[in-house]
Structure prediction request, 374 residues.
Amino acid sequence: MSDTVTAVSPFKRNSDIDVLLTIVKPRPLIGLGNILILTQTPTPSASAGENSTPNKATKVAGLLMSKTDAESGAVYKEYANADAVEEDYEKDANVAKKAHTYFAQKNASDRVAVLSYPAGKLDVALKNFWYNNWTFAIFADNIFNDDVTNASNIFEVNKDHFLVLQSKNVADYESIVGQDYTIGLVHDTKEAMDAAFIGAIASKTVGSVTWKFAELEEITPDDLTVSERATIDTAHAISYISINGRGQTTEGWTLSGEYIDNLHGDIWIKSNIEAELQNLLQTNDKISYDATGISLVASVVTRVLQTAWEHGIILTDETTGKGDYTVTTTPRSAQSISDISKRHYAGLSFRYHRAGAIHTVTVNGTIQSDTITA
Prediction:
């Protein structure tokens, strides 16, 4: 993790349940494969008079939503297709190019989001649009500056979204080495590997896919030497190469060396538990503070973990043949008087064993020979 990450605090939100199952901070389940393109708002010209963020796209063209943040002046938009993005951005602009590459992938979702932020306002803009319908973010311009470092630290502290960066030079990642929630790609920036990477994989069922071996549309495999590949792997970055005649992404990890599918699975479980618990509270007139109510709350978590096992996020226990997870509760009598008074239950916990995946294979063979040697 970068030494500067301690200067960043997690974003706040209006909510009722957090991931520790404390009924204070919930968040709705969001599109866990959706992409956000970050672009700095151009400085307005003297004749423009106001913010120069493009504003031509309409609902007819495919604009799904548009929201301006009063605090930062940033504009957040969601588009249904690349043509709608090109209403606001020139076809040869990086935003449009990355949107086009994203939608060219076989597993792209039904939208792209674009956040246009004024210079110096990235942190505020991200804070106010953090819980919109996206999970993976990229920059329109592959320039390693203070915004990139700041963004990486923001993602690291919040631990529920991913920042995907792309550079031709693996050395660019030295300043943010060790980050769990930043993914580093090494590829010529003339091609939008970052957008392709997310579009090809992120919207598949979480737990069903690893981020290695993916074939990307409109991305040319790099001809790397063994030494060049090793340098990229040592930095825990990802390249796109040709093996056995097919293009594929290399190790699917973040800059810390943690695997993306592990963290994506954790986010899936967290988001679903929060959403399902919130739904439980909203759809019942009352959840009693007794064994019955506690059992209801626990059953929600059990159901989410069971689904996570079925999706391949959680390991199968070799002894039982069932998901390797447990859900534990403590009774009302074990809760503090203060918690009971505030109608807060903190006696629910769970654990699970990540399933992981096979990325490499070693085969041991024995050859039987009839040749007699001296």
In short: The first strand starts at residue 35 and ends at 40. The mean pLDDT is 91. Residues 3-260 form one domain. The first helix runs from residue 82 to 88.
